[in-house]
Amino acid sequence: MKLILLGAPGAGKGTQAEVICERFNIPTISTGNIIREALKSGTEMGIRAKSFVDAGKLVPDEVVIGIIQERLAKDDCSNGFVLDGFPRTIPQAEALDKMGIAIDKVIDIEVPDEVIVERMSGRRVCESCGASYHLVYNKPDVDGVCSKCGGTLVQRKDDHPDTVKERLKVYHDQTEPLKGYYSKQGKLYVVEGHEDVASTTKRVLAAIEA
Ligand code: AP5
Ligand code: MG
């Protein structure tokens, strides 16, 4: 099964990807996580991406397309995968089609902008393993400590309110047109994502199994 999770920043793509990955035993491929790893380890790609990520802008298409092409060629993708955060632009979607990858479904998680701003301000991520929490909706067992690996929880630099606003603008301008792109291909499934995680998961799984 080859799935794409579409949605605004903070819509809950990463959260739902984790559930899908366990349930169907397929890997999650998150371009955001791959880029953050590269930033942390200071690779050439990381250095190139930093100014874009910090400003809430998209990293250039050719960089991200290269990352995906390399990642999808790995053995663990042979039974399918969940793409979280890719594609983000029409040229990225076209590149995926040109790679000959037949996506089964695109699940679009819809959350109003006001809800997103509130969610992002409460998100905390583990600086070691990248696991994501929320100060109100998804608390770690011990404040400030990752329940999975014991790492320290920090706020993502691009989760500060001004950057979130920029990310939302970029989403509406450059990513939202993908809804039309995949709707024309008959692959788009729209799911309401403004309720709690469990309710959203039910809707996402129903869409996958529809
Ligand atoms: P990326 O990491 O992909 O960021 P994003 O799309 O902006 O999405 P987020 O990770 O912020 O949100 P999410 O939908 O995964 O939400 P989450 O589940 O964490 O990309 C970062 C940057 O990298 C980009 O800005 C760009 O610069 C670059 N980049 C990445 N991919 C790129 C590409 N393809 N092309 C170009 N550039 C690219 O949930 C958010 C919070 O809400 C969490 O705290 C969570 O616990 C909580 N939460 C989740 N669901 C619920 C719920 N139902 N109720 C209450 N709280 C909830
Ligand atoms: Mg994410």
Q: What's the CATH first level of the domain at 2-26 and 79-112 and 174-209?
A: Alpha Beta
DSSP, total strands? 8
Q: Share of helix among residues?
A: 40-55%
CATH topology of the domain at 2-26 and 79-112 and 174-209: Rossmann fold
Keywords:
210 residues, alpha/beta, Rossmann fold, 5-stranded parallel sheet, 3-stranded antiparallel sheet, 9 helices, globular, binds BIS(adenosine)-5'-pentaphosphate, binds magnesium ion
Structure report:
The protein is of the alpha/beta class and 210 residues long. It has a domain at 2-26 and 79-112 and 174-209: 3-Layer(aba) Sandwich (Rossmann fold), CATH 3.40.50.300. 48% of the residues lie in helices and 16% in strands. The strands form two sheets. A five-stranded parallel beta sheet has the order 2-3-1-4-8, with helices on both faces. Strands 6-5-7 form a three-stranded antiparallel beta sheet. Helix 1 (13-24) packs across helix 9, helix 2 packs across helix 3 (44-54) and helix 4 (61-72) runs parallel beside helix 5 (90-98). It is globular and about 45 Å long. The model has no long low-confidence stretch (mean pLDDT 95). The chain binds BIS(adenosine)-5'-pentaphosphate and magnesium ion. BIS(adenosine)-5'-pentaphosphate (AP5) binds at residues 7, 9-15, 31-32, 35, 52-53, 56-59, 64, 85-86, 88, 92, 119, 122-123, 132-134, 137-138, 158, 167, 193, 196-197, 200. BIS(adenosine)-5'-pentaphosphate binds at residues 7, 9-15, 31-32, 35, 52-53, 56-59, 64, 85-86, 88, 92, 119, 122-123, 132-134, 137-138, 158, 167, 193, 196-197, 200.
